[in-house]
Amino acid sequence: MIQRILVAAGCDKDSMRGQRSYLRAVRAVGALGAVACAAEEAEAEAYAQAFDALLLPGGADLPASYFGQEPHPACSYDDPARDLSDRLLMQAFRAAGKRILGICRGCQVANVYLGGTLHQHLPDAFDPVLWHSGNITGRHPATILEGTLLASLLGAGATAVNSSHHQAIDKPGEGLTIAARASDGVIEAVEGKDVLLLQWHPEQMGETMLPVFEWLCGKR
């Protein structure tokens, strides 16, 4: 049976069109991907019944008020409709017992909605800090921790990941444990029951990251 993966997006046309790389990654492992947003709880619940898993993709910063902090001047918040949609979809898919993959902003969103917090601007929290907000085609060193789900997918130990963010997880949310860190200590991945959250962009890293999407589709 072909798995059906919902890729979350904002409710505007530009956001909908911006999710193509995620759809390509889902299709590369033999699944069917579709892009949608949810404006209300009933709509999100309907999506959770119609689809097999949820992918929360990258995007803009999350409002600091969501995790009890004052906004940092380096942050920008501009999509309350997407914030609502992501929260409703995540709640609905978790209630349905279905898998969730969060990537970059999606990683941060899921962590916050599970009660965690974020570093709003990494240069203020880490010294020295890797250039995490660099070109997405670049790479920086990270370590995947032994005994984790992520290690079972990609292997434990040293790796290299891409980066396009200036925020990252500070305190993991409820039920989440750290699965990978960058060499400067920044949390690069956390995981929990039916949840895998990556700060990097696996959809831009080719075949080496396809096991992540195979997991999302129930093939691992």
UniProtKB/TrEMBL annotation:
<dbReference type="Pfam" id="PF07722">
    <property type="entry name" value="Peptidase_C26"/>
</dbReference>
<dbReference type="InterPro" id="IPR029062">
    <property type="entry name" value="Class_I_gatase-like"/>
</dbReference>
<dbReference type="GO" id="GO:0006598">
    <property type="term" value="P:polyamine catabolic process"/>
</dbReference>
<protein>
    <submittedName>
        <fullName>Gamma-glutamyl-gamma-aminobutyrate hydrolase family protein</fullName>
    </submittedName>
</protein>
<dbReference type="InterPro" id="IPR044668">
    <property type="entry name" value="PuuD-like"/>
</dbReference>
<keyword id="KW-0378">Hydrolase</keyword>
<dbReference type="GO" id="GO:0033969">
    <property type="term" value="F:gamma-glutamyl-gamma-aminobutyrate hydrolase activity"/>
</dbReference>
<dbReference type="InterPro" id="IPR011697">
    <property type="entry name" value="Peptidase_C26"/>
</dbReference>
<dbReference type="GO" id="GO:0005829">
    <property type="term" value="C:cytosol"/>
</dbReference>
